[in-house]
Amino acid sequence: MNAMGMARTDSPRSVPLLSAVPLFVTLLVAACGGDDLLLPRDGEPARIAAVQGDNVRATVGQPLTDSLVAQVTDPAGRPVPGVEVTFVAPAGAVIDPAVPVPTDAQGNAAVHYTLSTTAGDQMVEARAEIVPESNAVATFHVAADPESPESLTIAGGDRQSAEVSTVLPDSLTVIAVDRYGNGVPGVEVAWEADGGGAVSPETVMTGSD
Among residues 201, 172, 199, which one has the least CA distance to residue 188? Predict the structure, then answer.
């Protein structure tokens, strides 16, 4: 009886689960704090933004009137000087200077940009070493317009055959292009049939392409 009583007396006591909670919370806070968090502090670069030169329009192959300017700021939105910013342009465009540019006292880095000879939307990226990486790129959008038209090129309808006094199955199509081969919209093209026949309409404006 005594042996059985001892067995019952020495059995492990249940430990309340709530007593372990404060220790777990303390360990969790310690693991998430300190130098393990890769977040910028005040005075350190946190984001980069395009502050001048975004959403502008110019002619292909020409320099922009104003510089492209990117600004680097800390988590509180204050400018951060001395941060190197690299500008990356599309093929055929020119960035001056072509080396990384350090930000000034206002957190700004500026370059001159000469458009490539390809019409359309040209995008320039300004990149800086910033944590988190999602804030490390600012994008400039430049709309590149074609130059004045230089010539017409045949785009469709050539070398067709049909019976006399009938309409050709396909339309006759030309493209007005500048010296770089970009299509130029809004150009008035006059058509004339040589050696008989007729065209309709006799005058057409080039479309957006």
Answer: 201
Sheet holding 137-145, edge to edge: 56-59, 137-145, 120-127, 84-88, 101-102
- Residue 130 burial (10 A CB sphere; 0-12, 13-18, 19+): buried
Helix (H) or strand (E) holding 28: helix 21-32
Instruction: Give the C-alpha separation, 59 to 107, whole Å.
Output: 30
Q: Say if residues 93 and 114 touch (Cβ distance below 8 Å).
A: yes
Residue (of 148, 142, 94, 146) closest to 119 by Cα position: 146
pLDDT in single tens digits along all 209 residues of the chain: 444 444 454 555 554 544 444 444 443 444 444 444 566 678 899 999 999 999 999 999 999 999 999 999 999 999 999 999 999 999 999 999 999 999 999 999 999 999 999 999 999 999 999 988 888 999 999 999 999 999 999 999 999 999 998 999 999 999 999 999 999 999 999 999 988 889 999 999 999 99
How far apart CA 64 and CA 56 sit, in angstroms, is 9
What residue type is assigned to position 14 of the chain? Answer: S
165 phi/psi in degrees, rounded to 5? 65, 20
Peptide bond into 12 cis (omega under 30): no
